[in-house]
Design a protein that fits this description.
This protein has 142 residues and is of the alpha/beta class. It contains 4 helices and 6 strands. It has one domain: Flavodoxin domain (Rossmann fold), CATH 3.40.50.360. Helix 1 crosses helix 4.
């Protein structure tokens, strides 16, 4: 059984809803899943070695960037442990075209991360299709 972490930041609840679908998908595929809201401070780079795969989720903020006060610092801390790690990315947006996610994926690949699948993004709250895509993302990590 693989161990999967779902690590996310959510301001309005949209990315948290996506995280719940990622978790459900990974569990359906038989993974042992732990979910962490970045705001709770329970996840750190030190925990990365405890998991076989990690889903990172963050909405687009400002000029299409990661949330800057909590998520970006955590991700910067974790970046050094991405080499060879199986990961996936997800998040919601309210404007733009997904540039923040493409940039984030490029940054992960440059750090040596193994992408389990394509990232999942949705505009505002996740609809049925976005939830299905998030479940598939979770299954890919398992």
């Amino acid at each position: 059984m693989s161990k999967v972490a779902v690590v996310f930041w959510s301001g309005t609840g949209n990315t948290a809803a996506m995280a719940a679908s990622v978790e459900a998908g990974a569990k359906a595929a038989g993974a042992d899943v732990s979910s962490f809201s970045v705001s709770d401070g329970a996840f750190s780079a030190a925990k990365m070695d405890e998991f076989d795969a990690i889903a990172f989720g963050c909405p687009s903020m400002g000029a299409e960037v990661l949330e800057e006060s909590e998520m970006q610092p955590l991700f910067d801390e974790c970046k050094g442990k991405l080499n060879g790690k199986k990961i996936a990315l997800f998040g919601s947006y309210g404007w733009g075209d997904g540039e923040w996610m493409r940039n984030w994926e490029s940054e992960c690949k440059a750090a040596g991360a193994v992408m389990a699948c394509d990232f999942v993004i949705c505009n505002e709250a996740p609809d049925a299709q976005a939830k299905t895509e998030c479940e598939a993302l979770g299954k890919a990590l398992a």
